[in-house]
What does this fold into?
Amino acid sequence: MVCGFVPQRAAAIKAVLGFLLLAGCAATEPEDPALEAHVQESFRRNPALATDQLRVQVWGHTAYLYGLVDTQLDYFVVEEVAGKVPGIVKVVNLTHMPLNR
It folds into this structure.
């Protein structure tokens, strides 16, 4: 723990920042359900990922990833998989691992 910074605070800060990012994008770029579906389908095709705990929102050409991942490796895999979807130019990975691990 550094300067009173604990993992629970980090998760809360990450969630608030993600909301603020989406709120700012909402005014300028439309949501894209077709790209969201494409990213979700890419997750489902990867048997190593627990897709029932992942959520995706796409604004413009930016994918915002939310939810739980099982491992640190999965954290990077979801980002890589989403980034390979045609039409996605940026990925903001707001996923996290459960705190009890």
User: Anything to note?
Assistant: The beta strands are 54-59, 62-67, 90-93. The chain has a mean pLDDT of 80. Helices lie at 7-26, 33-44, 72-83.
